[in-house]
Amino acid sequence: MLLNAVKIGLLGLGTVGGGVANVLSGNRKEITRRAGREIVVTHAATREPPTADVDTDGMTVLKDAWAIVENPDIDVVVELIGGYEPARELTLKAIENGKHVVTANKALIALHGNEIFAAAQKKGVTVAFEAAVAGGIPIIKAIREGLAGNHIDWVAGIINGTGNFILTEMRDKGRDFADVLAEAQALGYAEADPTFDVEGIDAAHKLTILASIAFGIPLQFDKVYNEGIGRIESIDVRYAEDFGYRIKHLGLTKRTAAGIELRVHPTLIPNRRLIANVDGVMNAVLVHGDAVGPTLYYGAGAGRNPTASAVVADIIDVVRALTTDPGNRVPHLAFQADALADTPILPMAEVETAYYLRMQAEDRPGVLAGVTRILADQGISIEAMMQKPPMDDDEALPVVMLTHRVREAQMDEAIRRIEALESIRGHVTRIRIETLN
Known about the structure:
Layout lengths: L5 E6 L3 H12 L1 H8 L3 E7 L14 E3 L2 H5 L6 E4 L7 H10 L3 E4 L2 H18 L3 E2 L10 H8 L5 E7 L2 H13 L3 H10 L8 H4 L2 H15 L9 E2 L7 H9 L2 E11 L4 E11 L11 E8 L3 E8 L3 H17 L31 E10 L5 H11 L4 E6 L9 E7 L2 E2 H12 L4 E10 L4
């Protein structure tokens, strides 16, 4: 080991932690050439013994994570245990002890990032978090540095591979949501409790971070509108295709004159858009800047090696900046800490978008006229409409409409009134449409 080697302490030696250890070891010479100093993992904390495929040569493996953040010889703490606690306490203690921190923990950054960055700013250390969003895709660096000269207009992303896998299987094979979810769990794409993935919480964590670095606003996870994919039926996927769209679970943040849109929900996207053709467990983020126009970032959003790639890149960046004055380092959230804007987050009721509507209507005269009258009363115009044959032995007819753009509040009222009609059975299925022009 070189005398000026940078000493790393890993918190977590599971899937990602093991990947980081292996990448740092396997690519040591190349990494040293890039960083200018050797980078060595001297300590790691793990509750379970590391698997045989993890290179722990020369590493002290402990069960006590606190011993690592308190160790005066460690320069950089890499937090890979996930969750909110004790990750937050460990991170803050590492910062208090003057250590730089690298993390892949999107939940930690989305909920506690403001507190963590303030502590790091005060102490003069760096907190790097590239792997927290979209795994191996360097989207944080792209927006924060590569697009620093742009006024970012909007960011849209497929940022959860589990949800994307489910919707892809529903489209390609006509399968039902519950059936595909069970397979995703069997394959290890979804957890035994899949709530974070299918309800959009994981994507909302990531979108919170993307919005902050895109628009220079504080992290505000509590203001993200969030809607999962559990109510999407295979028939909606098929009807969307008939109209020339594909359904994706999209995270979207957009700058408007009234405020910032911050929302995660199923979305119809024209099938000619590149992002609409991102399938399986892959991720993609589309960023629109005023100078560069649209740019698309695609790749593996999870997994041992892709995530380890992003973590190691952060470690290299931290090492390169060790001798840099803290005031000259790249700001955590892209904008200088004292220049973050208090731009309001737009309530979902004020968001404007187009809609896909599906309803079950009785097959008798005047039914559609009553529906279109309600839409007209709310200022909602119809772009296209299809009436489908009855499903199974049901006497009701599926009616599918695409509307022009309208405020969410107007659509909420229209749907409430339509569902109250005696001629309409059950709930109206509503999916938002974004053309991403």
